[in-house]
Every structure is written in structure tokens, then in C-alpha cells.
Specification:
60s Ribosomal Protein L30, Chain: A; 7 strands; homotrimer; 5-stranded mixed beta sheet; two-stranded antiparallel ribbon
């Protein structure tokens, strides 16, 4: 496979993508339908362990929330590359991200937290990485994770 | 209409699908666009009554939450069959489920709860029933329901 | 550009759409992919200020929540018109709305709140404005907004 510009950028950024997290329940990490890849929600876990467990605004500050969102994005990217057959070459556009911040009822900065994921998509895919997005604060997340992110991505058909 | 393999499986499982819940507000139970059916969120209601009202982790244990999620899935299936003209024959793939668990801020098992819905899709559709998914814990759900689930489903065009 | 029936209806309703809110974080107000426009979540803001800050069921009653949802819809419509090149003429169908109500854990009327958005889509687009929908109550929203709504819209290709 010819190495794609996106793959080169991942390498240039020194990013090492994690293994795709094994789903802890009955779902797939991604499902492709037509030219759209639907990526399942990923929490801030690495090697099977949730890295940040707790609530942003109580247990974690904004910068830590952003670091958690970035880990979610790394897991999404790992699943996306697998869905694309091992290279980011087929990626056409990151359509939409959904961002979920485990937070206290008075937390107001979900968008800033989720930038930790959006920024990484931008670093790798440039214009193609720009996306619509919805970011909300939620009562609870799987395994107590601080952040969860999902995505829809368009690929070349 | 020839009875489809999926319809036969519903019968073999002894499942009787409920009537499609009448929307309590200004929306449709489904909207088809191209070959994708977007199913509106369904709560754990039967015959107009919410079966499980309260919070998982406080009022209900995991097994009850799963039973609630299964009822959500039954309602989704009823809406899907209606959208498909009375048979599951046109179903190609269950693309994505969104699962919402009404829970306490320390609840960590949204994925396990939503398996109550995912498992039912798998029982009926087999490989075609496997899907991407996002499961989160939320502050509140319509009519105090314990669980709500929505779905995107691809049909043969 | 010929004025479309939908544009005429906006005028007949006396609606003046706001400027598309400038994203406060790293995302786009919309992304088009094929014949689908994915609209980013919009909160109840006007001219850069969140109009209703607080929780429905504690700080705001149902009617105020509906007014907040209507403002979200106005912002979505502004983004949609921009995505369509300045006219609603290309709009084919409002596929799906996602509604998020910043509320207390015992609030049960998210669907009624989100009607404030759905009704406006119906007033403008008629049958084409009818949509599937998921409405939930969430722990927190960006900038303390009372309501956030996002949407998928199909356009003529």
C-alpha cells in the first residue's frame, strides 16, 4: 500500500495509534455503510484501562479534560484506520463528532474539552478534518470515563 | 408478501412486537432518506405506559436496566417494520444505536444496560444486526423513563 | 435567485434569521456530505449571548424552555440557509433532530421542550419539516445554555 499524505502526517507528528479498544459490550468499533463510516463512541482508555476516571470540573481541570478528549480521538483514529484497511488514504471528510463530557451540573465548557479531539483531527486531516459537532455535558460515562467521543467519517468510494 | 428470514426469526423467538408508540410530541417515529431509516428515540414504554420509571443504579439494578433497554428495542423494531412496509425483509444492516441511560452520576455501566437492546438486534438480524454504538448516562429522560435508545438502519434500495 | 416557497414562508411568518453563531470552539456550523447537511449543535444564543442560562425545571418553566428551543432552531435555520447558498430552496427533508435539555434529574418533559424547535421546522417546511427525533435531559450544556439542538437535513442533489 502506498503511504498516504495523512499517514505521513501521523508519522511526522510522532503519533503512535493505540490498538483499537476491544468493545466491552455487544457492539462493533465501526460500521461502514456506503461511503460513510460510523465510529462507535470511544472513551479515554489506553491498553484496556480508563486513563481519566471522574468528572471534569470536579476531579479534572479543562486541560486534563482536553487530554482525555485527545485520547478518545486516538482511539477513534485507530478504529478509523482499521475500517479503512490499514491506511488513512481513503478518508475524504470527517463529517461530524459527538462529544460527551462527564461533568458536574454547573460545568459550561464541554466545547473547549472536546477541542482536544477536534484539534487532533485537524492536525492530521487539515481541511478534510473539519467537522460539524455537538458537545454536551452528561451525568455519567462508561467505566467512569471523563470523556467519550464518537464520529461519522466519509471515505472515497 | 413472502415471509422473510428475519420475520421468521421474530416468530421463532416468540416475539410479539408492540404497536408503534404514538409520539408524545411533534416528531415522527421514523424518517427514511435514501436507503437509511432514522428511528426516533424510543423509551421503555408499552401500550402508552412507561414500564420502568426511575434511575438505573438507584431505583433499578443492571438486569432491570437491560430489560428496559430490550423494551426500547422492541419499540424500535416495531417502528422499523412499519418503515419497511410490514416486513423486516428489506433490512440490510443496523448501522448505529444510541443508548441513553437515566442514571445517577456515579453509574458506570451504560454499555451493559444498552446490551439489552443490542442483543435483541443480534438475535433477529444476526450479522446484519451488529452495529456501532454510543452509550451514555444522562440526567433525565422523557416521562422519567429509565432507558431510551435510537437507531440508524440501512435497507436494501 | 428565485425566491422559494420556503423562503416566502419565512418572510410571511415575519421571521428574521439571526447571523450564524460563530463557533466558540474548533468545529464548523455545518458540513455537507453528499445530499446530507449535518448541522452542528446550536444553543439558545443570539448575537453572541446565551439568552437563557440555567436549568429547565429549576430556573425556567416549560414555556421558557420551548422559547429557548425555538432560538436553537433559528440558529440551525440560519446555518442551514448558509449551507444551501442563501435560500431554503434546496431543502428536501429535515431528517432528524437531536434535542438536549439542561435540566434537573427529575425533569420529565424534554420532548415538550424540544417541540419549540420542531414546531418551527414544521411551520416553515410543512411535510418536509417532519423529522425523527431524540430528546434527552443532560447534566450540563455549553455556556450554561438551557437548550441545545442539532439536525441532519437532506437537500436536493
Amino acid at each position: 500500500m502506498t503511504e498516504d499524505i495523512f499517514d505521513k502526517r501521523v508519522a511526522a507528528l510522532g503519533l503512535v495509534l493505540p490498538a483499537v479498544p476491544k468493545p466491552i459490550a455487544n457492539f462493533l468499533p465501526f460500521r461502514r455503510e456506503g461511503s460513510t463510516i460510523y465510529l462507535a463512541g470511544q472513551v479515554c482508555e489506553l491498553e484496556g484501562e480508563v486513563v481519566y476516571r471522574g468528572k471534569v470540573g470536579r476531579d479534572f481541570d479543562l486541560a486534563t479534560g482536553q487530554a482525555a478528549a485527545r485520547i478518545c480521538a486516538l482511539n477513534l483514529l485507530a478504529a478509523l484506520r482499521l475500517a479503512c484497511g490499514g491506511s488513512f488514504g481513503p478518508v475524504k471528510a470527517c463529517i461530524r463528532l459527538g462529544g460527551f463530557v462527564n461533568c458536574t451540573p454547573d460545568f459550561e465548557q464541554a466545547p473547549q474539552v472536546i477541542n482536544g479531539a477536534s484539534d487532533l483531527f485537524g492536525e492530521i486531516f487539515g481541511e478534510a478534518g473539519l467537522h460539524a459537532r455537538t458537545a454536551i455535558g452528561v451525568a455519567a460515562l462508561p467505566r467512569g470515563a471523563a470523556v467519550e467521543v464518537d464520529a461519522f467519517v466519509a471515505v472515497k468510494s
